[in-house]
Design goal:
Strands 6, 8, 9, 10, 11, 12, 14, 15 and 16 form a nine-stranded mixed sheet that branches. The chain has a five-stranded mixed sheet with strand order 2-1-3-4-5. By secondary structure, the chain is α/β, with parallel strands linked by helices. It holds the Pfam family RibD_C.
Length: 317
């Protein structure tokens, strides 16, 4: 299952509106097929893995990060149909698909076809891998990651607005990896005008993974940019599982105030700026007590001279 999760995670940002599923087929202790959801959402991970294994699947076990689909599509048969037809003996599924078109029906179809089914293996890591798709299905909006590059004292720029470069090359390379896993990347109007950012992915081998670009503005956009008039407009986005908010302080403030940020990535540089531009403005908190318990810190990571801090929003289901 760990391998399946890794495969699905690598496909994140390429499959929307479909989930980025990973799949591994094992027979007699050997991997005979594996795959992830293809770019654009088809073929599904199970079909990719079965195609790789070919006839060597009779009696095999299939590991998948998400329940095999059960709803008919013009783009191909259901995975819950082709899996037993191929001769798979056992299916291990990390999580049940919350999409009401499947939602347990896929596992029921497998059992009815005589396939042994095991649920819940690696569920927590699979949820993290699929958090963009799951957020969209459960709450009708993409999973939102806010990226901030800060000094030790929490500044994003000098008083003049100069901010290149606060962080080093390793941190900036990591940002490109995160970009490659997003379906859309957003900046505020001020950042667009001041920096004219390209927001593309410039890592070797990932150049084709640049996300759609959006600007948060009440006015007009630029050619090649989509417009969001407010953070709440993310509920109307199509084919976006993962949204990355990259700048500047106005956009960060707006999304935090609307409580629409699910994860914060802080790239902390070992520099002091002193007087300068803060990362965010007023986000609606009037008491320190109200700020506690809202964010859960992840394990920090060293990126060259910088430090990556990860914070996940704590929400009640």
């Amino acid at each position: 299952m760990d391998r399946a999760i890794a495969l699905g995670s690598a496909a994140r940002g390429t499959t929307a509106p479909n989930p980025n599923v990973g799949c591994v087929i094992v027979k007699d202790g050997e991997v005979v097929g594996e795959g992830a959801t293809a770019p654009g959402g088809r073929p599904h991970a199970e079909a990719v893995a079965l195609g790789q294994a070919r006839e060597n699947v009779k009696g095999a076990t299939l590991y998948t990060t998400l329940e095999p689909c059960a709803h008919e599509s013009e783009r191909g048969p259901t995975c819950a149909t082709i899996i037993p037809e191929a001769g798979i003996r056992k299916v291990v599924a990390a999580i049940v698909d919350p999409d009401t078109r499947t939602a347990g029906k896929g596992l029921a179809m497998l059992r009815e076809a005589g396939v042994e089914v095991v649920e819940g293996v690696g569920a927590e890591d699979a949820e993290a891998s699929l958090e963009g798709f799951l957020m969209r299905i459960r709450h009708g909006r993409p999973f939102v990651t806010l990226k901030l590059a800060l000094s030790i004292d929490g500044k994003i720029a000098l008083p003049s607005g100069e901010s290149k470069w606060i962080t080093g090359e390793d941190a900036r390379a990591h940002v490109h990896v995160v970009r490659s896993q997003a379906d859309m990347i957003l900046v505020g109007r001020g950042t667009l005008v001041a920096d004219t950012p390209s927001l593309d992915v410039r890592l070797p081998g990932l150049e084709d993974r640049s996300p759609r670009r959006a600007v948060l503005t009440g006015g007009n956009g630029e050619e090649g940019w989509e417009i969001l008039s407010s953070p709440e407009a993310i509920h109307d986005l199509e084919n976006v599982n993962d949204l990355m908010v990259e700048g500047g302080s106005g956009a960060a403030t707006a999304f935090l105030k609307a409580d629409l940020v699910d994860r914060i990535l802080i790239y902390r540089a070992p520099i002091l700026i002193g007087e300068g531009k803060s990362s965010v403005g007023y986000i609606g908190l009037d008491q320190i007590a109200d700020a506690h318990g809202r964010w859960r810190a992840g394990t920090p990571r060293v990126l060259g001279i910088d430090r990556l801090e990860v914070y996940e929003r704590v929400r009640e289901e």
